[in-house]
Amino acid sequence: MMLTTTSGTFPIPPEVASRLPQVPPIPSPDAPDYKVLSKAFNAWLEASSVHAIDFERLRRWHLVQEELSARAIASGLDYQVTDDGLD
After folding, report:
1. How many other CB atoms sit within 10 Å of the CB of residue 82?
2. What's the predicted TM-score (pTM) here?
3. Angle between helices 34-47 and 49-74 (to 10 degrees)
4. Which terminal residue of the chain has fewer beta carbons within 10 Å of its beta carbon, N or C?
């Protein structure tokens, strides 16, 4: 599993990947069937408060990883994906 940030694409260690919430991908507005995919995603999101919480946890984790990777790359350091931001 890989994490893509504006700083690059990085492997997600298995111990981190196993902790990530299972969330369907957000549909791309460029997808030919965007309306159908968007409707399905919104239905999934609204089906359970747990889904909304999982989505927010994953979104927050990605934002934290985005910031950490940018700092590491700017400092000339290697970046390792972590579970920072999940809890």
Report:
1. 15
2. 0.89
3. 110
4. C
Q: Tell me how far CA of residue 56 lies from CA of 17, 21, 32, 40, 49, in angstroms.
A: 16, 10, 26, 18, 11
Compute CA distances 61 → 3, 38, 57, whole Å: 11, 22, 6
Token pair belonging to 33: 């069937």
Contact assessment for residue 62 and residue 3, using Cβ atoms and an 8 Å cutoff: yes
pLDDT digits (tens, 9 = 90+) for 46-64: 999 999 999 999 999 999 9
Helix and strand element counts for the chain (H, E): 3, 2
